Amino acid sequence: MENTVNFVPLFTSLDDVYEDNKNSMSERHIPRYQSVAKQFKDIYGQAPKYFSRAPGRVSVLGGHADYCGYNVLPAALEQDFLMAFIIVEEG
């Protein structure tokens, strides 16, 4: 981990973010980031400088109430949300 800003961990390597289970880095994670970066460049004309990631969650039962009034318990999933971006100076 590189450093932390406002309690958000900053990483410079996917090895620090994902565990390489069953060769998942080369087969799944790296190609996914490359695909998002390519799509970003195709749309905006430049490569993204940063990626932001949030782990997925599923609610099973217990902790919160869902829209039907039943209890649910959030649990982390392997799936995650990925976003590429650059910082644009307003001018």
Write the layout of secondary structure elements.
Blueprint lengths: L2 E3 L2 E3 L13 H21 L5 E16 L5 E15 L6
Antiparallel strand pairs: 1-2, 3-4
Which labels suit this protein?
4 strands, extended, 91 residues, two-stranded antiparallel ribbon, alpha+beta, single chain
Indicate the proportion of strand residues. 35-45%
Subunit arrangement of the protein:
single chain
- Give me the count of strands: 4
Lateral strand order in the biggest sheet:
1-2
Weakly predicted, low-confidence segments: none
Rg measurement, Å:
17 Å
Mass-distribution shape: extended
Mean residue pLDDT = 82
Q: What order do the SSEs take from the amino end to the carboxyl end, as H and E?
A: EEHEE
What is the SS-derived class? alpha+beta
Number of helices: 1
Main sheet specs: 2 strands, antiparallel
Proportion of helical residues: 10-25%
Distance between the termini: 33 Å
